[in-house]
Amino acid sequence: MHTPLFRVLSLLSLAGVSACGAAPDDGTTATDDAGLARRDGALVRDTGVGATAPTAVLELHLLDLWAQPLPTADVTLTVTRDGAEVPTAAGAEPYIRRLDLRTQGRYTVTLAAPQHRTLTATLDFDGTRRDNGLSARLAEPSPQGLSLTRGSRVIAGVAVPVHTVVLGLRHEWFSAQGRPARRGNRIDLLMDGEEAWRTVNADLQTARETVNVSTWWWESDFELIRDAATHPTATEAQRQRNTALAIFERLPARKRVLVGQFLSMDGLASTLSSDAALRAHGTQSGDNFEYMGQANETRGAFDFAVRPFSFGDRVRAGFPTLATGLFAAESLVQSEVPGHHVDLTKWPVVMADVLAASYHQKFMTIDQRLAFIGGMNLRRVDWDTSRHRVFEPRRMLFASTADARQEVVSRDHLPDNGPRKDYMVRLEGPSAIDAEDVFHERWDFLRRTNARYSPDSSAYAMRAAPAALPGGQQVQVTATLPAPFDENAIAETWFNAVAQARRYIYIEDQYFRMPMVTEAIIRRMEAVPALRLVVITKPISEWTDPGCAWTRRTHEDLLARFPDRYTMLQLRSFDTQVTWGIDETEARFMDMDVHSKMLIVDDVFMSVGSANKNNRGIVYEAELNVAVYDPAWVRAARRRILANLLPDGTTVSDDAAQWYEQLQQSARYNDAARQRWTDEGDDISLDGRALPAEYAPRGFVYSLPMRGVMRCFIEDIGPDMV
Q: Is 401 found in the same domain as 422?
């Protein structure tokens, strides 16, 4: 067993800095009976560097704003004194640079790295061996990281102050406020329910310790696996094995499930989004299957602002040996997301005390090493193939009979659920732990506040992040979390992405009514004449959709400003149905339920998850996304997404102007085909002949016309409500 002295020496040998704390300016160094140098009682180490001791030593730690070491190959560090460059020496770690200080002077330190903002700091050294003989500040007010801590080291028999300046670079795309943007992840884009849930099911079979699930809605009979060959004729017992509840009950791992609640915590509506079969596990001790619900209690009116953070706190948490030193005072790092007054009472009638928000996060973690994050619930509508066929028998409800499914196969009947577009990502690597951490925070909060079913819930401990995978992507798990968590990393990534956009912004989403971000998009499009905006969403009801007015206001403003650089599109599936012998062939156009939550910018950045493009998704609705900055990966994903939407066989261009036009051409062609059917009353007599080409749409893309705001039945709901 190691002695305390051995442990102290080990720490010092790694950091090169003593464990001295708040040593006074006039502190002295003495040698103890063992010949070890001590300063004010704290052990210091003789490095034996150089024939003579410098007046002081400056160490520069080159980190990002999450206090992670920057890759040395990417870093450019310049240190000057009086305009002349000063060389630095390698430190104890690759991210450390060392400089001996001998005389009074002012130093300018500039740190740069790709996709990070350049940081410039001014260091003033007073030429003494005082512990506070060096001061450091950012050259100009900037949301970057700078911390100064002081220690001591014995060099050539002399106690020399060590001034450690820790620099933290802000990434241009990722959120500084959120969890770290970690390197070395493997991320796979899963498109639509068939691919997504098949992949989830395969990985669930590897779970041995824990499976944690957050969903907005849970249905126990939701079928994850629906084989094309056998599902239409399978019996209920055969299909039962592939339902969410049956799959979970068979897993040896401990299962924990969080489901969103509506209107109030554990109130009258708390059972609306779950079912009795799941809730039964919440009261059964020892069954390795736990459940709790959670309501979002955001209400009233308040001023929204992204919470600032302490870079020094991140440094102390990540580097325990530095944490023992004396830190100089520092200011908090502020967010650049604009503040916003939120009023959740602006309904046609006063509803100040109604909880309109929810926990909308949809994600799953397996053994704290793997995460799935996306927009799909374990709910009847959250399954489709990427072919989005009109007559798809696997979109029938679980209770449907084999005969009913066969009627869909034979095109005698439409399925219970229509076509649906959505995405999920599979995340393996260090960032998976951040999804786990979100679940852990929520789970512990419910246990502390004695939520219903918490007596039969279990505590668990978080592990360290999994090891980085070679050649992996840099990924950030981003969240919107209301009080008491107060996290808005999704908002920060979206504002960052808009501010960096040069070629295109691609939005595919259930909603498009986010005035906060739209204002930033307009400013960016005005500043960058080549920037294009593509929005793919779904039709909105003029009578029942409370977001009708805000969606149309947004569309009208963008169209008026950028008629040649902005387009709004929708997705439709098409097929035909013969209804009277062989004479009458009827068109079956089905608007696709675009449930996506996708943002892509310039083939370099993607944000995808559960957050919709509305104010609430980035302010107070609980959401979880994944942000990816990786040009090769994002470009490949964007190609795949567009190839699925455009006519089969289309070679998707990498030129934003060209694929923008490909979408426009596809929409024009399909609009014309749709109009031909309208002119025919949606049925034509073919007498057994093949459908003429001009009546056959290609791909799924159509224009989405928007009529005026005045046609919306409800106009006066606040922009943060919808």
A: yes
Helices (DSSP H) in 205-258: which residue ranges? 236-240, 244-250
Contacts of 386 (CB under 8 A, 6+ apart): 191, 192, 194, 195, 644
What is the rounded CA–CA span in Å between residue 141 and residue 279?
Answer: 53
> pLDDT per residue over 504-545, tens digit each?
999 999 999 999 999 999 999 999 999 999 999 999 998 889
Helices and strands of the chain, counted as H and E runs: 15, 36
Note if the pTM is more than 0.85: yes
Total structural domains within the chain = 2
Domain that residue 41 falls in:
4-169
Strand pairing partners for 29? 39
Comparing CA positions, the residue from 110, 4, 104 lying closest to residue 60 is 110
Residue pair 170/152 in contact by the 8 Å Cβ criterion: no
Residue found under tokens 């900055």: 629
Determine contact, residues 62/97, Cβ cutoff 8 Å.
yes
153 and 260 co-located in one domain: no
Q: Domain check: are 115 and 247 in the same one?
A: no
Burial class (CB in 10 A: 0-12, 13-18, 19+), 353: exposed
Tell me the CA distances in angstroms from 641 to 93, 189, 244, 631, 653, one per residue in order.
Answer: 42, 10, 27, 15, 12
Query: Does residue 540 share a domain with residue 443?
Result: yes
316 within a domain of the structure (yes/no): no
DSSP secondary structure string for all residues of 300-365? SEEEE-PPPB-HHHHHHHH-HHHHTSEEPP-PPBPP-SPPEEEETT-SSS--TT-B---B---EEE
For residues 140 and 187, membership in a common domain is answered with no
Helix (H) or strand (E) holding 54: none
Average pLDDT, the chain: 91
Residues lower than pLDDT 70 in the chain: 1-51, 347-355, 581-583
Give the tens place of pLDDT for each residue, 65-103.
Answer: 999 999 999 999 999 998 899 999 999 999 999 999 999
Q: How far apart are CA 51 and CA 612, in angstroms?
A: 64
**Domain final residue pick, 134, 169, 204:** 169
pLDDT value for 300: 87
pLDDT tens-digit series, residues 546-570: 899 999 999 999 999 999 999 999 9
Peptide bond into 484 cis (omega under 30): yes
Residue finishing a domain among 169, 189, 209: 169
**Which residues lie across from 154 on neighbouring strands?**
46, 159
**What's the distance, Cα to Cα, between the start and end of the chain in Å?**
61
